[in-house]
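Problem 3 from the worked examples.
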Amino acid sequence: MDLPLSLPLTVTDQLGRRVAVPFPPQRIVSLVPSQTELLFDLGLGSRVVGVTKFCTHPPEARHNAVIIGGTKNFDFEKIAALKPDLLIGNKEENYQAGIEQLAATYPVWLSDISTLPQALDMIKRVAFSTGEKARGEVLAVEIAASFTALQSVEATATAAYLIWRKPYMVAASGTFIDDMLGRAGFRNVFAGLGRYPEITAEQLRAAAPARILLSSEPYPFGAKHVAEFQEICPAAEIQIVDGELFSWYGSRLRLSAAYFQTLKTTRGPK
């Protein structure tokens, strides 16, 4: 623990909201999968009493904690029964009405992340707020160093990053995925659009990306979908990619830079 016991500790979240947190919090509910994994990697697993049904890392998160619904449909009765002294969520992944309802009763700390620096800032803030400042600093430094070591190349390889099918949806500007694409050496052909737009097959064909990256989440793209996109863009290289390593902004980022390095040399359908 990095600070003496102090009840409460007032911290500021990434939306600029001041949150009074019992310090250190003992009953934490995580409303975001990537931040659940972060809490466990900070050594706080025994204090995580509630998680979402999507919190798959580490596996014990859903075994040892109560599942309080999804990221956009909280079970308020289950949360109340847990008597949490801190809830950790995210502006994008959670829903405003649910967050406002929780914040009326409990301390709710929210992240807001669209770039790597913001992700590192979140890691350090969550660590500080939970009494694990030193661990958070070490983790942030480790992740930053891995991206610094990532062989720098100009982002000229054009790419489209698909996150959904029927309708087709892509990650565009203003998203964490778009920031990761640039760091991985890709130029997003849909950067001129905002957030997660729907696109047509005709738009994809007209954009003519050199590579089409099919994310493993949230839509579970697999090898069976490669031919579908090859027909739309015959000249493109189609690849299934690990969506967690492009979109999870917690401690899983320790694995992302090395994975991106492999994508620079890997070619052909995967």
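Problem 4, a separate protein:
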Amino acid sequence: MSETETSRKTYLPAGMPVPAPAHDGVDREFYEAARRHELAVQRCGKCGTFQFPAEWICHKCHATEPGWHRVSGRGRIYSWERVWHPAHPALKNACPYLVVVVELPDAGNIRMVGNLLGDPMQEVKIDSEVEAVFEDHEHATLVQWRLVES
């Protein structure tokens, strides 16, 4: 699939629920940053520990109200899976697709999960460099990943 085709295709088929911030607002800034095409994660103001997903307290020192920190959106593939069986009826015609666990070196090596854009049959190598790609929808922006050209 060419870069143009990849940029036009959305990986959220019709009928899939759009991810949204939690009702308690703990992850609101993550979604607001994604809408601005920025990647943000929590970072404790007391001990400096990064964490994802969002929580009301620091995982390490238990300080309350961790702040948000913008990160580069570049990472490395920690793990991956080629999905052949749809987990939701709307994904019936989307298989196969690639899901990656991405480790973010500039955020304390926290990990995020997302789709790897491009050919679903491409060779995927652990430790390959990826960058965040933002897929806009009416009510939310999704964070996806694509390989960084060497």
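Solution to problem 4. Strands lie at 39-43, 50-51, 67-71, 74-83, 97-104, 110-116, 129-136, 141-147. Helices lie at 3-8, 28-35.
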